[in-house]
Amino acid sequence: MSANNASDLHTVSDRLAKNAMRNVSERLIEGLLFSAAAVSVLTTIGIMYVLISESIHFFANVSIVDFLTDTQWTPLFDDAHFGIMVLVSGTLVSSAVALLVAVPMGTIIAIYLSEFANGKVREVAKPILELLGGIPTIVFGYFALLMVTPLLQKLFPELPGFSLLSAGLVMGIMIVPYIASLSEDAMRSVPMSLREGAYALGSTKLYTAIHVVVPAAFSGIAAAYILAISRAVGETMILAVAAGMQPNLTWNPMEPAATITSYIVQVALGDLPHGSIGYQTIFAAGLTLILITLVFNILGQWLRAKFRENY
Amino acid sequence: MQALTTEQIRALIAKGKLRDAIFKGLGIFCLAVALLVIILLVSDMVEKGSERFTLDFFMNFASRHANQAGILSAWVGSLLVMTVTALAAVPLGVAAGVYLEEYAKRNWMTEIIEINITNLAAVPSIVYGLLALGIFVYQFGFGQSILSAGLTLALLILPIIIVSTREAIRAIPAMIREGSMAVGATRWQTCRYHIIPYAMPGILTGVIIGLARAIGETAPIITIGALTFIAFLPPAPFMGEPAAGLFDWVMAPFTVMPIQIFNWTSRPDPAFEVNAAAAGFVLMAMVLSMNGIAIYLRYKMRKNIKW
Questions:
Q1: Could you say which of A92, B7, B37, B293 has the lowest number of CB atoms within 10 Å?
Q2: Is the dihedral of CA A248, A258, A260, A55 positive or negative?
Q3: Whether B168 contacts chain A with CB within 8 A
Q4: pLDDT in tens, B218-269
Q5: pTM (2 decimals)?
Q6: Which B-chain residues 215-234 have CB contacts (< 8 A) with chain A?
Q7: Is A60 exposed, middle or buried (0-12, 13-18, 19+ CB in 10 A)?
């Protein structure tokens, strides 16, 4: 390009100036996009900040030993007791019931869809499962309270109107799609050659599925189980509706009990003054909930690392 | 090993085939149970709630009398909360997805953001409610308003939108970017005019799934202290006395569909069960049709891709 006459020089420098502007706006946009991505980190920091700062106030009034060992949870009574075990027991029992339903059912569906079903069945079944996973939990709560509990009462006449059992069963059904869909993805990514090897040695489909595909996909299946546990521990509305809200230290699923999550709902429904001890208990309960899910997540990451297969 | 006779081998094969068949039956049975639950759920709600499916039900406020109570404030509230959620979550989610796919260098900061997004997906939704109660309601002083609720749900569905945006972008071949860059477009111009439009169907799927999830969420909204009994609507823009501004409605108290259902199921009077069933059906119809649209979009997309 010749820059001999003045007008040419003008256009070139114009273009350079425009280029510089372009770089500035590019930088600006990159910064904006980065800050959008950083919102997720801010969310985590916000969660930890809120839970910890409010819990510190709580633990200034209640000793951690009492919190962990007391067998009563009556934070709103005059004779206040703060034994988180009461809520943890309800949470663990309902989660156990849910997982007893969801893990076998989800795994069987996943193995069936990945190893046995033909493409057409899979194409239809997966969206149906997704629909099941998309049903609002409040609707499941309604279902548990007004359909499953009366049905169960026909089998066990002594079952009370609220119980961990019916809430847990319905919660299990809710979790099935997560386990089925994630495990199926994990199993389908196991290379064909492994299956062909097993078939070549004369294995049946079921034998191949259980002894070759499942172990090879175990890290992915474990991840699905961990997600299911997080869901079960954190599930709120089914329990708030169908398990009752009385704090009750029990390991019997046939009884009503409050969970960590349903306690938070119960307190939020009343109007507690900001800064009162009752208000702070929900943050202490929330912190406990997050710590429980964190333990399972770390366990999951360890499992995934331990059983990761490289093909 | 002892050699087997032909009969023994045949017996072995038959046994294996039988086990396969039994397992196949078990798989179909489990799938059928899942399907049965959906059918049972829907048919029960229709059966119980059908008498309430009238125009009045949609146009009446909540009431102490079960047969006069309606869902007007609930569906309007849900609609407004969803508007705030979408306005906050879609730009943020898409921007974050574009940054992580198109701009981010592989370093520790990107790594932290990515691990974070995965972990946020496992955080129980009620914890988002506690976050919102501490930050939005008290720290920022938004109160128990539509704004607080919308932002809470936006944070909740952000991971879903980010992940689906990234997946949609990853499916766009590199030649599209190279072509755009080759004619002198900047990175942002490439994203703005090529990457984002081509990724749009995938992003839309994620947005719909996220909003369907948000519309059914109850726990975080109860936690921020949404009221359960509301017999008025938020001020319409430029209406009312004194005239409301364009955005006055975002600070209004509200209720949403799931809270209305929760309120009705937790009443001892069985007359409200009918209302709960009817409202539950309406909510489920909204959520399932949104999910249906998303599934259809994805199905269509998979068929139409021709790079």
A1: B7
A2: negative
A3: no
A4: 889 988 877 666 667 777 666 666 666 667 778 888 888 999 888 888 887 8
A5: 0.87
A6: 215-219, 222-225, 228
A7: exposed
